[in-house]
Design brief:
Elements (H helix, E strand, L loop, with lengths): L1 H26 L12 H15 L3 H14 L29 H15 L10 H15 L33 H9 L5 H8 L6 E3 L4 H4 L14 H10 L9 E3 L11 H7 L6 H8 L4 H8 L2 H15 L21
Antiparallel strand pairs: 1-2
Helix pairs in contact: 2-4, 2-5, 3-4, 3-5, 4-5, 7-13, 10-12
């Protein structure tokens, strides 16, 4: 009898541990706001569409903002917080200075549209608005639409120091990329799918100038770069170029979310070392080749990876709140 009691105790303990480990993603669910702010998704989508019609930068700006938010302290909109005299916030860390203002503006405009509905005011988190807006910009630029899990709270702190070492660098090799993504529960497949966000948007010349001018003593130009593409980049980014000059990350279809990113890698046209390594490293090349020839398979993998990314470090209960102003802690 005693033995069976102990077995029941062990089983119930292990069951409660299982429940605990999945409790964060269990908090997130589709239609989370059904009884709180039922039209929230269409309100956000309309605000994002309006912003998209003003400038295409809305798309890569919002998508990148979501990545940079989730990789530091989880998906809690802490990257949107403005610095104060007493606190240097995440957005002012050197790794975040290149985030486009249009990404921040998209979330702030969508939040204003939600809060303009009296029953919705201060009921929807900035973190959830960013997650919805990210889905919407992907769809607006030709990518897949997908159901977003909701129920995140906004983070209670934002410091520049918390960004150190948390974001992938343009120079990373496959081991470094895999290690950073694995720290958030993301696999190599997820990492390759999410890297395809570089099918949209632009980069400043200084982010890749080492590949076209001073790669190594033997090779001033990175030998993994397509030679004609390297010449094009040198023409667009001459030495001592104005630091504000930027080039498209996808030279073929820069305004379309598609699998051309992988075709570019096959042709030596990955802008960053961290892009091209996905093709040059034999461990990741089969995935690149598969998705270069199969757009639906890539889109499915991207949606699965975005869902996993959206669960990273989610704040619930007393660990978060709903900000009245996305840029200011309550």
């Amino acid at each position: 009898m005693m033995g069976s009691f102990q077995l029941i105790l062990v089983l119930s303990l292990s069951f409660s541990l299982c429940l605990f480990s999945s409790s964060v993603s269990a908090q997130l669910r589709q239609n989370y706001y059904a009884n709180i702010c039922p039209n929230v998704e269409s309100i956000v989508r309309n605000a994002v569409q309006k912003k998209f019609q003003q400038t295409f930068v809305t798309v890569p700006g919002t998508l990148r903002l979501f990545f940079h938010d989730c990789f530091v302290q989880g998906c809690d909109a802490s990257v949107i917080i403005q610095s104060t005299p007493n606190n240097k916030a995440e957005k002012d860390h050197p790794d975040n200075l290149s985030l486009a203002g249009d990404g921040f503006d998209t979330v702030i405009k969508a939040k204003a549209a939600v809060d303009a509905i009296p029953s919705c005011r201060n009921k929807v988190s900035c973190a959830d608005i960013l997650a919805m807006a990210t889905r919407d910009v992907v769809a607006l630029s030709g990518g897949p639409s997908y159901a977003v899990e909701l129920g995140r709270l906004d983070g209670l702190s934002s410091t520049a120091a918390s960004v150190n070492g948390k974001l992938p660098k343009e120079t990373f090799n496959l081991n470094q990329l895999n290690s950073l993504f694995a720290s958030h529960g993301l696999s190599q497949t997820d990492m390759i799918a999410l890297s395809a966000a570089h099918t949209l948007g632009f980069s400043h010349c200084n982010r890749f100038s080492n590949r076209i001018y001073n790669f190594s003593r033997q090779n001033p130009v990175d030998p993994t770069l397509n030679p004609s593409y390297a010449t094009e980049l040198q023409q667009m980014c001459p030495r001592n170029v104005d630091p504000r000059i930027a080039v498209n990350m996808d030279p073929i279809t820069p305004n379309t979310f598609d699998n051309v990113y992988f075709k570019n890698l096959q042709n030596g046209k990955g802008l960053f070392t961290a892009d091209q390594v996905l093709f040059t490293d034999p461990r990741s090349r089969p995935t690149v080749n598969a998705w270069a020839s199969n757009s639906p398979a890539f889109e499915r993998a991207f949606v699965a990876a975005m869902k996993k990314l959206g669960r990273v470090g989610v704040k619930t209960g007393k660990k978060g709140n709903i900000r009245q102003d996305c840029a200011v802690l309550n």
